[in-house]
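$ run holo --ligand "S-adenosylmethionine" --emit tokens
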Amino acid sequence: MVQLGRQVPLEVFKTAKKGWGVRTVKALEPGTFVEQYLGEVISDKDGAQRGKIYDRIGISYLFNMDIDGQPKNVIDSYLCGNASHYLNHSCDPNLVVFGVFYDSVDPSFHRLAFFTKRAVAAGEELTFDYIGDNLGDNAIVSRRFPCYCASTNCRKWIHL
Ligand SMILES: C[S@@+](CC[C@H](N)C(=O)[O-])C[C@H]1O[C@@H](n2cnc3c(N)ncnc32)[C@H](O)[C@@H]1O
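-- output --
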């Protein structure tokens, strides 16, 4: 069983073009639990309202909890959260996010847990795909902005 409270040492750092980001202090094996996305849990309706405000300031910390295509709650880490608040997008990410039922079986109140999808070197930036592979099409509810992930398969724009 994954202990969601046990975290690997992370460091928030200033990236060249993406604002703040998160890197791992230690090398990580594939499949390592890294962190969960924490914040205020709000309805998808309230999330849409806040999304409009965040669009105006050009940054968003909303994470859609949709795991089955049905409207669900949204996690907003703008005011409270943990280091995952600073995780940036990559088109070739080293993290994957899963909906995890940990202390509730209510389908609206699962946790969002990040795991490594490959081996990660110490000091490497941790990223996930904002478009989402396990969590429907809108991992973070927002807008469109140019992608600076610099991976060889970069899609150039992030459409949220
Ligand atoms: C959840 S925040 C991530 C932390 C953010 N870098 C910061 O400084 O607070 C999401 C925002 O980070 C920026 N961002 C994340 N990934 C990016 C990327 N690959 N290219 C450009 N900007 C990115 C965008 O401004 C996006 O709205």
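-- notes --
The chain has one domain: 10-159.
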